[in-house]
Amino acid sequence: MKAPLVALAVTAFVAAIAVSPAAADGLSPDELLSHYQPVTVLSQGELFAPTSVDDFLADATLQREAGPAGFRPVEMPSAGLPVHGDGWRLDHRCAAIGGPLATAQCYDPASVGPSVVYGRYEVIAGTTVLQYWLFYEHNLWSLPGLPFGAVWQAHEGDWEVVQVVLDDEQTPIEAAYSQHCTGQRRAWEAVETVAGTRHPVVYVARGSHANYFTPGVHAIPLRCYPIEAQQFFALLGIPPRDVAAPGALLGPGTTAVERVQDQNPRWLRFPGTWGEAQYIAAPPFGVPPQAFGTSPVGPAFQDDWRDPLGTIAAYSQA
Fold first, then answer.
1. Kind of pairing, strands 256-259 and 127-142?
2. What is the pLDDT along the chain (318 residues), one digit of tens a residue?
3. Which residue, 103, 175, 189, 268, has fewest beta-carbon neighbours within 10 Å?
């Protein structure tokens, strides 16, 4: 599907920068990461864009579980985030439980720093996997079709990933986009790309930041929620879903690609969660905010990082 639905906007966006050539043979890891950098199409109404980990850490405290007392603040090690032990979490100065409007105002999206994507290059048995990790300070999902905040879910430190798989001759084979607890993949020939380049187009769902190959309304698998949250949606009689309505474009020229590897930078080895608990609520339906699960762990502790090809193979075919 080489003719994008937002073709004019995307083409004009990329025309304003140096367009990558179509051939990719013999490129270095950094050149490949630049060559296949995705263009992320944020949804209309999206409050948060992919940003720098450093910006989040500047507004967060380090905490560690202390038994029945819950979590308590601890001093940040002089070397940076801890890389050993368990029970760690980061806690942004804002609180997800405050509700959508209060939370959005506290996080002040306008103050978020420059757009960043963290690129990883990995060769596995001759197959090259290019990963683009996107970090959002906050996940603030509101069920589409209802007033904002009528049914909402929130957590801090949202991590998503876009992957491009190349064969041993650096020819693209497929792309894979993360979505909640799972993802979708497509053969490269069916991936929407910016005309004249190999930049895949990614439609980002409003609030949840799930990545889709097409815009529109998409069902969220109930299995991505713990049983308590599944019961919550069953009680409401409303299935969870995403909406990706093309809005702002980010990518080459506006989003920096920062290369990451297994041991560098240090924050990759942080074994804790990037925020507090997750919350879900439906105030008009008499359901106050309730905690379920935790915020995500970092990239190096996720299946997409530990076993890229195995995880992609388990994704559904889009």
1. unpaired
2. 444 545 556 655 655 555 544 455 689 999 999 999 999 999 999 988 999 999 899 989 999 999 887 999 999 999 999 999 999 999 988 866 666 666 667 766 555 667 899 999 999 999 999 999 999 998 999 999 999 889 999 999 999 999 999 999 999 999 999 999 999 999 999 999 999 999 999 999 999 999 999 999 999 999 998 888 898 889 888 899 999 999 999 999 999 999 999 889 999 999 999 999 898 999 898 888 888 889 999 999 999 999 999 999 999 999
3. 189
Is residue 318 classed exposed, middle or buried when 0-12, 13-18 and 19+ CB atoms within 10 A define those classes? middle
